[in-house]
Structure formats: structure tokens, C-alpha cells
Write a structure and sequence with these properties.
By secondary structure, the chain is of the alpha/beta class. It has seven helices and five strands; from the N terminus they run E-E-H-E-H-H-E-E-H-H-H-H. The termini are far apart.
């Protein structure tokens, strides 16, 4: 195998916004000493995640690795379910990386699975904590999704997406009760918080 790919998702549980999948591809003999200390995005501060993301982009620019992030929107999640939405984004990540089954070993976090054509793959519980390549994918997915939600916050200022990124915080729930749902909301996730049509 020439390449190792790590895959993780961000945004499985929010009430609003897309789910994101990140994939990082490195040469199989990649020197992990140069990325010593990389950790799962959930264990990092927003500032630290941004720093790691900048390193990722710089290393891609230098040709040391490659990565991709793909989204599935709230509408897809509502129509097809979160599992389908994640798998769709995951598949698009691998296409963007031009990954081929003959050359790639894939390691995935949690319950994720790559398309069956990739015969050399391993799903690792809490892999974002134990596998650096999955940790990097976690960071790529989280930072890219957070940045998107910050941009979308300007279009839907009533919901304060910049602060909670679509997660079901008490303030977000209060805003849903007050304003109803907007097109970014996953209606199938919000039935306990509001009834009625999307605004």
C-alpha cells in the first residue's frame, strides 16, 4: 500500500447545518514525528484546531499530504437519514483524493465504513484519540464545518450559529422556540423543540 487514509466526521448530532466528513491521505511511510501531539479535535481548543488546520494546509501545499472535506446538507439528512448522509460525504472525500483501493489503506473512526471496494480498511473505536491520521481528519472536518457555520450565521442572524454551530444548546433551543425553523435546520432532529413549518 502506498497511502494511508484517515477518516472522521463532524456534526453528526447538531440540530442545524450539514454533517462534514474529513479525509487525510499520507504516504504509508509518513514521518509522524513532524506532527507530534496531534489530538482529536474534541480535545483541542478552537485556537489549537485552527493552528493544526493551518499546518495541514501548509503541508498539502508542500506536497507532503493531501486532505479533503465534504458536506451533506440538512435536507439530505432529513430525506435519507444521517447514516446515508455521512456515507455520501465520505465517498465524495475519497473521490476528491483520487483514492484507489489498490493503493490505499483506510482507517476510520467509530462506526464509519468506507465503500466495500476498499478492501483494506479498519474501523477503530475512539480512533480519533489513538490514530494520528484520524485525528487530522477530525480536525479538518471540524474546522471546515465551523467556518461554514460562521459564514451562514450572517445569513440567519436570529439563531446565533456563530456561537453554537448548530448544536442543541439551551440558547439555540430558545431561538427555535422564538423564531421557528430556518432552512439550515434538520427538521427530523427538531421535532422535540418546535412544531410548524420552516420559515
Amino acid at each position: 500500500m502506498r497511502y494511508l487514509i484517515g477518516i472522521d466526521e463532524a456534526g453528526r448530532g447538531p440540530l442545524a447545518g450539514p454533517v462534514a466528513v474529513g479525509a487525510v491521505m499520507v504516504p504509508h511511510d509518513f514521518d509522524w514525528k513532524i506532527l507530534k501531539g496531534v489530538r482529536d479535535s474534541k480535545q483541542l481548543t478552537p485556537f489549537a484546531r485552527e493552528e493544526w488546520y493551518r499546518k495541514l494546509r501548509a503541508m498539502r501545499q508542500a506536497g507532503m499530504l493531501d486532505f479533503s472535506v465534504s458536506f451533506s446538507a440538512a435536507g439530505t439528512i432529513d430525506r435519507r437519514g444521517i447514516v446515508f448522509a455521512i456515507h455520501s460525504a465520505l465517498t465524495r472525500c475519497l473521490i476528491k483524493l483520487d483514492a484507489t483501493p489498490e493503493q490505499c489503506e483506510i482507517r476510520l473512526d467509530g462506526s464509519l465504513r468506507a465503500p466495500e471496494i476498499f478492501t483494506v480498511q479498519k474501523t477503530i473505536i475512539r480512533g480519533d484519540e489513538s490514530e494520528p491520521v484520524i485525528s487530522l481528519a477530525s480536525i479538518a472536518a471540524k474546522v471546515t464545518r465551523d467556518r461554514l457555520m460562521q459564514r451562514l450565521a450572517e445569513k440567519y442572524p436570529a439563531y446565533d450559529f456563530r456561537a453554537h454551530k448548530g448544536y442543541g444548546t439551551p440558547r439555540h433551543q430558545k431561538m427555535i422556540h422564538k423564531h421557528g425553523l430556518c432552512p439550515l435546520h434538520r427538521t427530523s432532529f427538531c421535532s422535540d423543540f418546535v412544531s410548524g413549518s420552516i420559515k
